[in-house]
């Protein structure tokens, strides 16, 4: 019987439909086991006072209207209650959303792991489908949106990391929330890759260590203009190991670390830009550690802005456990912007105008990060002036930032009464 075909059942009714409801109430423990041992023929049952009390007890526990009547909503919750995660294959069905306790568990797990299935309501809708596919992609499974044995194993492998990962994600979000919708007052560590005796990649007349420093300086100029405190992990002549750079960022209690690199490959055709954030791509390794959801978010925002401004090929964002990403206590992202071994990429990077556009992309991505999810839905180019207007309008409505000459009744501002 599907929830659609259910008829309303109440005290006094009898027959197979009542027997079906009673069987479910036995499974949920709302009907006592002794009730099943009354010698009533299989498939028949009477909706008596005991059944009515059991329905009420179930409705009470599930936050439903407590009326002792089994209508559509009570039936569908009752029907779903028998499912534990893994009992059946879960997938998104457009015409008929699967419902049940297993869907609740699935949604809760996705949320804990930093994916957003929408409301945890036990209904397998489009948002849950999208979150499940993202999870599958993140752990290296085929993102087919089907929760079968393989995906279930990946969830189970992550069992122990859930608390840590969740707390980590919450801490990162809390840091952003506390900072408010602005870049002002934040500390960003820029890490120009390589340096000193290590030139990094070399190709088509370009040297990675010089390029990364040049890009960092262009980014610094723009961020400083927005009130951001920018700190470099190295100067033109000094360089340190990734571990030292991470320790340095930690000592500053920076808000974010951006490591800037250009790539090189023996494969002549390799080209494009990619970003990297902290996380284990291998599901079995994820039991040990965390996944930086903010890092992932910023990595995606940054790459999108850089690709839109430079025309470089989008080589996606990827989780990595490199020392700088792993050892930093704040979100850290590494940008690999183009291949010096590729003639077209090299020509793009050789143009100072492109390097300015990359720097602008960094600033816009940071603003998108700190503006929150609602404002990051649009893709492509966004003018800095638009973002500033948005920030200003958000601030206008914000009691912590009163406009000069505007009275806020009931608000108290130290010194305002003088
Ligand atoms: Zn490099």
UniProtKB/TrEMBL annotation:
Q: Check the record and name the InterPro entries matching this protein.
A: MurNAc-LAA_cat, N-acetylmuramoyl_amidase_3, Peptidoglycan-bd-like, PGBD-like_sf, PGBDSf
Q: What GO cellular component entries does it have?
A: outer membrane-bounded periplasmic space
Query: Tell me, what is an example of a GO biological process annotation in this record?
Result: peptidoglycan catabolic process
**Keywords in alphabetical order:** Hydrolase
GO MF terms, alphabetically ordered: N-acetylmuramoyl-L-alanine amidase activity
Residue span of the signal peptide, if any?
none
**SMART domains tied to this protein:** Ami_3
Region called Disordered, residue ranges = 394-418
Ranges for domain MurNAc-LAA = 246-367
Q: A Pfam family name for this chain? A: PG_binding_1
Which PANTHER family is this protein grouped with? N-ACETYLMURAMOYL-L-ALANINE AMIDASE, N-ACETYLMURAMOYL-L-ALANINE AMIDASE AMIC
- What is the name attached to this protein's record? Cell wall hydrolase/autolysin
